[in-house]
């Protein structure tokens, strides 16, 4: 299955991506995770990306598209993939169409997780991430068993640099201006599945499975 997870910052894309990739056995490709890994490793790409990420802005398309194109050509993507946080502009979506076209393949579904703007800031500001395995928690809605410690691997939980109120608000604004046009883009292509992301994490996942029902 070739899938995209669309939705504003804090909608629950990363949380659902973990569940989807386990059930459908497809690799999870998060451009945000790729950038954070590069920042941690101190690469040139990481240094460039950080300038934009810390301000809540999008990393320029030409940097992002090349990374995703390379990743999609890896062997584990042959039978499917889940893109999380990409595409984020219409130009990125058009580039993705071309890349897939050249690979003689195409998308099966775009899952659009919908959450009201008023809820998003609290979700993102309360998010905690494992330094080692990247698992996401929330200080109120999805607590780890032991505060500050990852349930999965025992790693230390931290708050992302860009998960403060000011940067999250900017990221939501950027989403509304630059990313939300993708809803129409994929609706027109008959690929869009709208999912209510305000329900419980497990219910959101059940709804996604139902929406993907006939895709398997
Ligand atoms: P995204 O990848 O879309 O930015 P995440 O999956 O990281 O969002 O979720 C943002 C925060 O909201 C995390 O702290 C996560 O634990 C929490 N969260 C995700 N889905 C839900 C939900 N359905 N209800 C309440 N909290 C949620
Ligand atoms: P995320 O982990 O998806 O919340 O992304 C964190 C940040 O990484 C974003 O605010 C952007 O600065 C950057 N980023 C991630 N994916 C993209 C993308 N497809 N295009 C541009 N910037 C991106």
Features of the shown structure:
single chain, 3-stranded antiparallel beta sheet, 216 residues, 5-stranded parallel beta sheet, Rossmann fold, 9 helices, alpha/beta, 47% helix, binds adenosine-5'-diphosphate, binds adenosine monophosphate
Give structural notes.
- By secondary structure, the protein is an alpha/beta fold.
- It has a single domain (2-115, 173-215), classed as 3-Layer(aba) Sandwich (Rossmann fold), CATH 3.40.50.
- It has helices at 13-24, 31-41, 44-53, 61-72, 90-102, 117-125, 165-179, 181-188, 201-212; strands at residues 2-6, 28-30, 81-84, 109-114, 127-130, 136-138, 157-158, 192-196.
- The strands form two sheets. It has a five-stranded parallel β-sheet with strand order 2-3-1-4-8, with helices on both faces. Strands 6-5-7 form a three-stranded antiparallel β-sheet.
- Strand 5 and strand 6 form a beta hairpin.
- Helix 1 (13-24) crosses helix 9, helix 2 (31-41) packs across helix 3 and helix 4 (61-72) runs parallel beside helix 5 (90-102).
- The longest helix has 15 residues, at 165-179.
- It is globular, with a radius of gyration of 16 Å.
- The protein binds adenosine-5'-diphosphate and adenosine monophosphate (AMP).
């Amino acid at each position: 299955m070739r899938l995209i997870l669309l939705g504003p910052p804090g909608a629950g894309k990363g949380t659902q991506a973990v569940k989807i990739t386990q059930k459908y056995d497809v690799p999870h490709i998060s451009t945000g995770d790729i950038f954070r890994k590069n920042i941690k490793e101190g690469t040139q790409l990481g240094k460039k990306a950080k300038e934009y990420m810390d301000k809540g802005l999008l990393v320029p398309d030409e940097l992002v598209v090349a990374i995703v194109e390379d990743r999609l050509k890896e062997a584990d993507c042959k039978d499917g993939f889940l893109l999380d946080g990409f595409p984020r502009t219409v130009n990125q979506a058009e580039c993705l169409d071309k890349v897939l076209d050249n690979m003689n393949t195409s998308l099966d579904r775009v899952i659009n997780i919908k959450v009201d703007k008023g809820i998003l800031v609290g979700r993102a500001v309360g998010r905690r991430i494992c330094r080692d395995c990247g698992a996401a928690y929330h200080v109120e809605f999805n607590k780890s068993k032991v505060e500050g410690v990852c349930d999965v691997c025992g790693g230390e939980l931290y708050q992302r640099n860009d998960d403060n109120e000011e940067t999250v608000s900017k990221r939501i604004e950027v989403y509304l201006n630059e990313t939300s046009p993708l809803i129409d883009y994929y609706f027109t292509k008959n690929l869009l599945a709208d999912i209510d992301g305000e329900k419980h994490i497990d219910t959101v996942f059940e709804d996604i499975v139902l929406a993907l029902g006939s895709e398997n």
